[in-house]
Amino acid sequence: MTNTTWAHWIAIFATAAIAGCGGGDVSDVLPALPTSAKSLTLSESHTQDVASIKNYRPQSTLKPSLVTLSSLPIGTLAPKSATETLGAPTQIGSSRSIAPTSDTKRTTDLLHWQPSTIGGHIAAVTFKSTEAAGVRLGVRIHSLPPTAILRFYSEGNTTALVVPAQEILATIQRNLDSGDLGEDARTYWSTDLGGDSVTMEVEVPPGIATEQVQIAVPRLSHVYVLLPNKETPVAKSIGDSGSCNNDVSCNPEYDAISKSVARMRFVQSGNSYTCTGTLMNNTASNYVPYFLSANHCISSQTVASTLTTDWFYRASACNSAAVSSTTRSITGGAVLLYNSANTDTAFLQLNSTPPTGAVYAGWSSDLQSVGLGMLAVHHPSGDLQKFSIGALSGYYFCSSGSSFSCSTSDSQSGNHFRVTWSSGITESGSSGSGLFVSANGSQYLVGQLHGGSSSCSNTSAPDYYGRFDVAYEAALSRWLAPVVSVARTAVYRFYNTQNGVHFYTSSSAERDSVIATLPFYNYEGVAFYGYGASTTGVSPLYRFYNTRAAAHFYTISDSERDTVRSTLPWYNYEGPSWYASTTSSTGSTAMYRFYNKNTTTHFYTISSGERDIVQQTLPQYVYEGVAYYAWTTQ
Predict the structure, then answer these.
(1) CA 210, CA 191: separation in Å to the nearest integer?
(2) What are the pLDDT digits (tens) for 134-167?
(3) Is the pTM here over 0.85, yes or no?
(4) Dist. CA 245–CA 243, nearest whole Å
């Protein structure tokens, strides 16, 4: 440790301001990857377990201001049309302007601050869009303290969306970093909680001036299809797909792969849309939540940031209109890693962990043969999950733009598969859903839906899927089959000056992003060294994000990882971060761990001198001993 770092620590100790982190989720034994004599990259599917989101009840004394919009004229609703199946998502909501909160001054006037139960301040505004089935608020951020919290809840719904300001600020910065400098990039969209009203609650902690909250809500998205939940479990309107579709709940054979498929809901220019996407495994089977859909659904980071995914959105029984009680919605948006109009590919990484039981789908980058049987699992018209069975009938070249068109091609030049169905069809809302081939007793994804003309009145009409193998060769292999290094890698350390928490990362890209975008994180250089991948004598170091403390938690213990994931739902599991040792036999050095009783976070140091200073001067830090072993040199 350098003298500069030591000087920094002395100043921190004098003010008693250091801290650490927290986490949550469970994993199984990973299946072995299959071998192949061909130049084939194949990834098996895998199931993950994770706790659900904690409910929240608003402060009982809080009296929100009220903003009411009249019912939305029926003429503004976007009816389904034939063109929607030809490369366009299904619209499920319309943008509405909100004059009373159109700018920061008007919004500030409606935020009637009062003392909160924790000694800070809290205010709220309720927005009502008459006769809406759901409401999503577009909150434009001009200034927001990183330690603030926003909450969104609707009347009669026991679940609230609780969002730390740091998450909102990171989302907006991600949008701006993508090159979008417009107002949409500076807007955070709440999720649809059901009902025609939603309350936005803003809370700042003690010592933070309410004047630092400068936000506006210039528009909302009036959703006009019902989101079924525990209170209203029967699908209405959104369950209007054609009668020739096949209910996935009627076929146990497809139960596992159906759990990799999610309905998507997202916002673009204030309008709400739905598509379908698939959770993807990688060759490391390490639970990175990669998610595949269509470029015509999500083609920008700003739209990706609005994504909500609905998992196990299927019938409670075969051909039932009731939604399964296992249905779960996951918020938090996604990072758009790659998109291409050529294969109509959108490849994302979800920012939140998928729910308990979600399956990470296997895939194949092999060249598929004409005549091969195919399976599709999807949400036609945003409906409960369906499946279609057919065959690959040819290679085609498809273009998209003002019109969707495809022409016959070959395996070398064709960027799409042409598929015809023997049972079932696809519809608008199915866009982005996976096309699967069966092999080794399992299903492997080979494409995602771009568009087509199949319908219940023309079941033999073809649909077209962007080729996964082409996208894989172009870019997706970078994430799905990364080259693994077994050399030691640096682990970098930051100090968050706003909450006194330390952050560690082994990613140089993440390090550079924090340095460039989060000025309140002081970069302290290399803290120690670990391994970037699994090798002899090391174990994965698991990373979690504590949404309540806005801090990270790290553990090498599988049992501690599982306990956190099963009992602390506000800890988001982020997977293995680097690799270290559980013993000192590898020439490594002990990593010491402390628990801060005041902040309920952890602090880690490989320096025995730093350990001694903490023990001698900071009684709120409980020494927990050696957490694991790392290295002081590369």
Answers:
(1) 25
(2) 999 999 999 999 999 999 998 877 778 889 998 9
(3) no
(4) 5
CA-based nearest residue to 308, from 264, 274, 348, 243: 264
**Topology adopted by domain 362-469:** Thrombin, subunit H (2.40.10)
The one-character DSSP state at 476 is I
**What is the C-alpha to C-alpha distance for residues 401 and 92, in angstroms, rounded to an integer?**
22
| Torsion-angle region of 627 (φ positive above 0: left; ψ -120 to 50: alpha; else: beta) | alpha
Token look-up 């004394």 returns: 61
Instruction: Give phi and psi for 167, each to the nearest 5.
Output: -65, -40
Phi and psi for 129 in degrees, rounded to 5? -115, 100
The residues, any chain, with a CB within 8 Å of residue 91's CB and separated by 6 or more, are: 78, 84, 271, 272, 273
Query: Which one-letter amino acid corresponds to residue 131?
Result: E
Collapsing DSSP states into helix, strand and coil, what is residue 426? coil
Q: Calculate what percentage of the chain has a pLDDT beyond 70.
A: 85
Instruction: Give the sign of the dihedral formed by CA 248, CA 80, CA 244, CA 235.
Output: positive
Neighbouring C-alpha atoms within 13 Å toward the C-beta of 173: 16
- Among 306, 302, 296, 239, which Cα is nearest to 272's? 306
Chain-centre distance of CA 452, in angstroms?
28
Distance from C-alpha of 147 to C-alpha of 462, rounded to nearest angstrom = 52
Q: How far apart are CA 166 and CA 144, in angstroms?
A: 9
The confidence score (pLDDT) of residue 432 equals: 96
CB count within 10 Å of CB 402 equals 4
Domain ranges of the chain: 3-29+484-630, 362-469
Q: Which range is least confidently modeled, 135-149, 296-310, 401-415?
A: 401-415
